[in-house]
Amino acid sequence: MIPYDKREGKIWYNNELVDWQDVKLHVLSHGLHYASCVFEGERVYDGDIFKLEEHTSRFFHSARRMGFEIPYTEKEINEASKKIVLSQKVKNGYVRPVAWRGSEMMAISAQQTKIHVAVATWEWGSYFDPKLKLEGIKLNISNWRRPAPNTIPWDTKAAGLYMICTLSKHEAEKQGFTDSLMLDHEGYVAEATGANIFFKDKNGSLHTPVPDSFLDGITRRTIIEIAKSKNIIVNERKIHPEEIKDFVGCFLTGTAAEVTPVSQIDKFNFKVCDFIVELSESYQQIVRKKKAA
After folding, report:
1. Are residues 202 and 114 in the same domain?
2. Can you give the pLDDT of all 293 residues of the chain as single tens digits?
């Protein structure tokens, strides 16, 4: 795989298309040292960005929650995202908008820093190995927990929130798992390291944690809409880890993960049933529908 700093093409950077390898930030940028950084993750399907406006709105919400204003309008960022996808000729890939505080100040306070914004895109297939997606991935249960909602800006895609996700995923990989299930501060099921989680019970109903201390994913909301359109009961509730043994199916949802079946969590096993496959197929029909219309 080509390292991301060695790739070719352009990146939208502070309202200019800059050569990919010339996009730089200073080592003393506040965003690097103090996590004054927010981002988004978006998928391109057949040349179109899925739910671009929703992602951009969340991008701006994340910045406001982190105490800074993005120096462009949502419309300008939407146009920048479309422009860079077209420039890079990305057909099926990923888009990463990111905003961070610059290097004008180096201390906890950052009132006078410049806000930088970049949008990059590249061709990208499945987040998880395609074979694993067919068989179902395996999760351990992380020792790290999602922090209490009064300790962090939990409803944002802020860089600092992902530190424990990286720690959790690395530990899971060392143990032979693909990813990690994280509990919330009260000990209830929360999410995986970068995706929301759903369970299927014996009666065909879905159960998913209430997103009250972690991100309510755009893909998560889309899957709930699909399920309800199929008259599938969706229970958004607190789920205790002891309940995992009672479920017969499980899957993750996310922009990167899309719909990914889970075959195991810790010592508990699940079937990759037709129910989950059909939800995944329905999701694929929706994300590609705009191009076909």
Report:
1. no
2. 899 999 999 999 999 999 999 999 999 999 999 999 999 999 999 999 999 999 999 999 999 999 999 999 999 999 999 999 999 999 999 999 999 999 999 999 999 999 999 999 999 988 888 777 789 999 999 999 999 999 999 999 999 999 999 999 999 999 999 999 999 999 999 999 999 999 999 999 999 999 999 999 999 999 999 999 999 999 999 999 999 999 999 999 999 999 999 999 999 999 999 999 999 999 999 998 744 33
pTM: 0.94
Decide if 157 is catalytic: yes
Which of 123, 155, 172 is where one domain is finished?
A: 123
**Domain end marker among 107, 123, 139:** 123
Closest CA to 198 of 181, 185, 176: 181
Do 263 and 208 fall into the same domain?
Answer: yes
**Annotated active-site residue in 51, 133, 138, 157:** 157
Contacts of residue 188, Cβ cutoff 8 Å, sequence gap at least 6: 209, 238, 239, 240, 241
**Cβ 10 vs Cβ 17: under 8 Å:** yes
Q: Are residues 53 and 105 in the same domain?
A: yes
**What's the CATH code of the domain at 81?**
3.30.470.10
113 shares a domain with 191: no
**Same domain for 23 and 109:** yes
Structure tokens at 14: 């502070």
DSSP per position, 59-70: HHHHHHHTT---
Same domain, 23 and 116: yes
Q: Which of 22, 255, 205 is nearest to 118 (CA)?
A: 22
Candidates 98, 112, 157, 122; CA nearest to 9 is 122
Cβ neighbours of residue 72 under 8 Å, at least 6 residues apart? 15, 80, 117
Split into its structural domains, the chain has a count of 2
- Domain span at residue 35 reads 4-123
